[in-house]
Specification:
Helix content: over 70%
Shape: globular
Number of helices: 7
Radius of gyration: 18 Å
Order of helices and strands: HHHHHHH
Number of strands: 0
Length: 147
């Protein structure tokens, strides 16, 4: 089942359950996927769908930090609920230890030895971890291991 079909089925279920948060989030996700399809001019591959979902998740996490800093507790709770919905459509995220292992393997493969090789390592490791780990975690892990 494609992501759009899954979103459509879940949207109907959320309507029947009168789950406003889930319904609103699924509608936004569906709109983002459809807009991306229109923009690229073809049906999205699973990697492209994951990229759209990851972008939506990142936007919500960034907004969450902003709302926390502004003391908007109600908006923070709504965003936490939206994040749970978005994460349910993404593949299982890797743990920090798993990310560290993959980053270390990549560092060994590309022969990186210092901070100057940061870009080379990130370029090699991100395709392996795309959709499976948060970019901030990968970035921090690469910096830590190159020090």
């Amino acid at each position: 089942m494609s992501l759009l079909e899954s979103l459509q089925k879940d949207m109907i279920a959320a309507m029947k359950a009168k789950d406003k948060v889930k319904l609103g989030t699924i509608r936004m996700l569906k709109a983002a996927v459809v807009n991306e399809q229109i923009e690229v001019g073809h049906n999205l591959s699973s990697d492209e769908e994951i990229a759209v979902l990851s972008r939506e998740l990142k936007q919500r996490k960034d907004s969450l930090e902003e709302f926390k800093n502004a003391g908007r507790d109600e908006a923070v709770q709504n965003l936490k609920n939206e994040i749970k919905v978005v994460e349910s459509y993404l593949p299982e995220q890797l743990s920090e230890d798993e990310v560290k292992t993959i980053v270390q393997e990549t560092i060994d493969q590309v022969g990186a030895t210092s901070k100057a090789d940061f870009g080379k390592v990130m370029g090699a490791v991100m395709p392996k971890l795309k959709g499976k780990a948060d970019g901030k975690l990968v970035n921090a892990t690469v910096k830590e291991l190159l020090n």
